Amino acid sequence: MHLQGKTIWLTGASSGIGEALAQALAAHGARLILTARREALLVDVRNRCANAESHILLPFDLADVDRLDELVQTAIAKAGHIDVLINNAGIGQRATVMETTMTVDRQIMEINYFSIVALTRALLPHLLTRPDAMVVGIASLMGKFATPRRSAYCASKHALIGFMDALRAEMHDTVVKVLVVCPGWIRTPFSVSALKGDGQQQGSMDNAQKKGIPAETCAAAIIKAMHQNKAEIIVGGKERHGAWLKRFFPGLLRKLVTKVPIT
User: Fold this and answer.
1) Which domain holds residue 223?
2) How many domains is the chain built from?
3) 2 belongs to a structural domain
4) Can you give the residue ranges of the Ketoreductase domain (predicted)?
5) How far is CA 194 from CA 90, 106, 200, 223, 262, in A?
6) Comparing C-alpha atoms, which of 167, 191, 173 is closest to residue 85?
7) CA 239 to CA 139: how far, in whole Å?
8) Using CA atoms, how far apart are residues 229 and 16, in angstroms rounded to an integer?
9) β-strand 84-87 against 133-138: which pairing, if any?
10) Is-contact 245 256, C-beta < 8 A?
11) pLDDT tens figures, 202-245
12) Residue 1 falls inside a structural domain
């Protein structure tokens, strides 16, 4: 996978990992389609990218799953073709199971899972016509193991990894490569907009997120994995060891997650 000259559709592009990815991908010579809900933030991200005038803004609320087929046709019409889809948009959670309403459970699943399934499925026929295509899913380390106060978020990321693994198996003899990215603690505002049990935003950054690796470091790791046609990567600090513990010492991990301070 060479990014120079590729047209890459990046969702969740207005902040955090998406913002860092946009700048890094543009620096590698890619042309971008940038999608997020807030157009003003997308304009700011585009203006800070190399070759800003070549990038396309496509503001959209991905929770509107029923209109994603229409969005795909608009994106293809504007760009001419699309080589890579990076499903980065998502929303977090900070509430116990008992505190969380079904409305919040459904909202998180709608954005973190169903929108990705619908967008990927709608674009897949087009990607299969390209000579070198890729679908990237930004999952989470929480898709490998779970912690308290993240039930819906963990469920959505476990589901996303399962979907992407199945897609990779189905695409094994086609031009479409599939990459799953599992970030741990990344220094972004992601936890600020995480939903509490009643659907209100948390409004503050977690301590672990403050101490996370820079979003630019995460973006560089993702681009390296794309270059190397990796199937899956885990990005982060010492929290990455949780995935190893889950595999080899699951009982120990179950004990540890009950003792680690979780906000």
Assistant:
1) 7-259
2) 1
3) no
4) 6-188
5) 10, 14, 8, 26, 14
6) 167
7) 15
8) 23
9) parallel
10) yes
11) 999 888 889 999 999 999 999 999 999 999 999 999 999 999 99
12) no
For residue 201, give the DSSP letter.
B
Which listed residue (9, 60, 145, 153) is catalytic?
A: 153
The encoded tokens of residue 133 equal 């295509």
C-alpha–C-alpha distance, residues 237 and 234, integer Å: 10
pTM of the model: 0.96
Does the residue 102 lie in any domain? yes
- Asked if 153 is an active-site residue, the reply is yes
Six token digits for residue 161: 């990894």
CATH number (domain holding residue 173): 3.40.50.720
Residue 100's identity, in one-letter code, is T
* pLDDT, tens digit (0-9, with 9 covering 90-100), for 114-160: 999 999 999 999 999 999 999 999 999 999 999 999 999 999 999 99
122: left (phi over 0), alpha (psi -120 to 50) or beta: alpha
